[in-house]
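Worked example 3 (structure in, sequence out).
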């Protein structure tokens, strides 16, 4: 049988810690292992995009652009991949075309090679400009669709969308199963249809939430999938991806053998096992597989967000009611896939419906804007009564939402003024003004507040170590390293991520 190695995209530097550690891994914890990652021979390493951009400024006091450059200097042989939320860029709303265009230009210059582009509603109109800009800078356009299950989502529909994306210039197609709901035989059927009817390379991305991820990946491989997303075992499973080493071992000696070195991967995993301990306060608390994702179609990250929202409102005991309400709201809103930002929109409305004691008594502005069409075209018609409650007699827009948005770069440049050292800072402000400004102000003051916090924590840990039981005679007590022991950022950067 002809040898056709499965290519691997490892998510260890992005989705793995976004899913398991609330996007809190610092660049300094990535750099020491970067040269080893560069030796593996991955098809790509996903290391940017999604929630990592704002989290870097919001929680880690890091410039997100610097992460790409610093890692690229140590990983020159490995293609870097990012998750680009199409017209949402790396944010939670639509941004003007000029902001999107400049973001893509600078991302490519910083070191991003593969741009995985998706739209939360699978509205191709929202993906067109992102795909065009990536092509213009010479990047790889990986056009994606968000996989979900509903009466209006079918294999034929996904294949049709993939065909449209091919016509728009996609270099490859990604099945983005963000909730881990794709059953193995469904993966086999969908990959087979994509390979036969569309003919582009296919990449499979899933999460372990339901427990089906490895089985689905293997059936996708049987059907001819080209690339599979995995994560080093130390940060895999639960709501992250299936473990890299396990898949490599399973395929060893077969026609789809990855050719990757298990010994090298094991050493990388050992490193991240040590790193993970520093972020234990950001663990989700999830103990294993959660099959409720199949019942309620709720991604693991959304489950933790619902729990947080209910605790804040003193209604943690109503968790099961909210779980049952989510599919109902989703159906009324036209079956949007539950991925950022539609997952937040549906989850918030479901929570309010339960907590307020009356459905749609309170409707957030984000839900109203969704009904207005400001996020794009819903997969199915929105319930007429919900539409009336949300926006009355107002008619939703039918155009591409970004066509209605004024250019943003000049406005951002004026607003941020001298705090911006370059256009990257202007883009950061255009995307997240309330996050970027405080970050840029801290930088301008030259105050390294984060280092001060690390020093304080290290001192406390050293003091606690001294108070512990003395070592046996003749044994030297280990020293406490401030940089190895200080894993928790200052409280001002430890809020829960909503990604």
């Amino acid at each position: 049988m002809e040898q056709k190695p499965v290519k691997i995209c490892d998510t260890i530097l992005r989705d793995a810690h976004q899913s398991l550690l609330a996007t809190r891994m610092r660049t300094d914890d990535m750099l020491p292992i970067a040269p080893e990652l560069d030796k593996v021979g991955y098809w790509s390493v996903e290391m940017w995009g999604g929630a990592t951009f704002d989290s870097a400024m919001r929680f880690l006091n890091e410039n997100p652009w610097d992460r790409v450059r610093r890692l690229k200097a140590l990983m020159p042989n490995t293609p870097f991949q990012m998750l680009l939320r199409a017209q949402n860029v790396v944010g939670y709303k639509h941004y003007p075309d000029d902001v999107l265009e400049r973001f893509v230009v600078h991302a490519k210059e910083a070191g991003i090679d593969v741009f995985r582009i998706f739209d939360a509603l699978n509205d191709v109109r929202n993906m067109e400009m992102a795909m065009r800009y990536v092509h213009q800078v010479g990047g790889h356009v990986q056009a994606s669709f968000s996989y979900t299950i509903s009466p209006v989502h079918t294999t034929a529909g996904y294949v049709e969308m993939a065909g449209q994306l091919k016509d728009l210039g996609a270099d490859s197609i990604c099945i983005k199963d963000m909730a881990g709901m794709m059953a193995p035989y469904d993966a086999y059927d969908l990959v087979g249809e994509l390979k036969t009817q569309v003919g582009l390379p296919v990449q499979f991305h899933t999460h372990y939430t339901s427990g089906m991820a490895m089985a689905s990946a293997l059936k996708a491989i049987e059907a001819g999938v080209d690339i599979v997303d995995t994560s080093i075992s130390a940060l895999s499973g639960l709501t992250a991806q299936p473990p890299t080493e396990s898949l490599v071992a399973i395929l060893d000696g077969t026609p789809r053998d990855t050719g990757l070195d298990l010994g090298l991967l094991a050493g990388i995993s050992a490193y991240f096992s040590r790193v993970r301990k520093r972020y234990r306060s950001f663990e989700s608390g999830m103990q294993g597989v959660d099959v409720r994702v199949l019942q309620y179609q709720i991604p693991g990250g959304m489950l933790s967000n619902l729990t947080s929202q209910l605790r804040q409102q003193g209604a943690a005991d109503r968790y099961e009611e909210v779980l049952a309400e989510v599919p109902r709201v989703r159906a009324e809103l036209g079956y949007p896939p539950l991925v950022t930002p539609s997952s937040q929109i549906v989850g918030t409305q479901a929570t309010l419906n339960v907590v307020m004691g009356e459905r749609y008594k309170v409707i957030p502005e984000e839900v109203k804007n969704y009904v207005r069409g400001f996020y794009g075209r819903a997969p199915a018609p929105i319930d007429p009564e919900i539409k009336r409650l949300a926006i009355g007699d107002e008619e939703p827009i039918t155009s591409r939402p970004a066509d209605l948005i004024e250019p943003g770069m000049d406005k951002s440049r004026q607003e941020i003024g001298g705090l911006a050292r370059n256009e990257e800072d202007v883009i950061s402000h255009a995307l997240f003004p309330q996050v970027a400004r405080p970050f840029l102000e801290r930088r301008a003051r030259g105050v390294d507040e984060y280092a001060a916090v690390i020093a304080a924590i290290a001192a406390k840990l050293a003091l606690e170590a001294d108070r512990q039981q003395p070592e046996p005679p003749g044994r030297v007590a280990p020293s406490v390293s401030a940089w190895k022991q200080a894993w928790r950022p200052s409280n001002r950067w430890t809020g829960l991520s909503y990604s």
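Notes: The longest strand covers residues 140-146. The first helix runs from residue 15 to 20.
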